[in-house]
Amino acid sequence: MVTQTLRHEDPRIDMTDLMFTLYPYAKSLHIMAVISWMAGLFYLPRLFVYHVEQAEKVEAVKPIFLVMERKLLKLIMGPASVVTWAAGLFMVFTPGLVDWSYIWPWTKGISVLAMTWFHHWLMYRHKDFEAGRNTLTGRQFRMMNEVPTLLMVVIVVSVIFKF
Prior knowledge:
Blueprint: H1 11-55, H2 62-92, H3 104-131, H4 138-144, H5 147-161
Helix pairs in contact: 1-2, 1-3, 1-4, 2-3, 3-5
């Protein structure tokens, strides 16, 4: 007796199977990238605080802070944000994983967009430092340092409780 394998005529079925197979890898990559991205989003405003407060006292530290900030942005935060978005979008487009009738995907999505805005806001603040035109104080950067924390709370609560 010859066993015949069934072949799907619809290529979308094969793609869906592939996406479900890759889902745990995408989710793992997403979590690792989010951790890296968040570390940068927490640390860069703190670096800006030190940059503002120490550069007023010692001019020689300015280039050191600029290098640290640039490397954090380019080598950690930039790639981590891209991987976070790519893996997240892969999961969003995996059929059947997200029920858009709930509120949680919308609150998470809005919070991720806000997190991305904050990342870009930090990039512009770094450019201000490079150009010597920073006008913000250490206190203002300390206050802005709370933004990623608040967004993280909304994202985690949204994903865990799935309201």
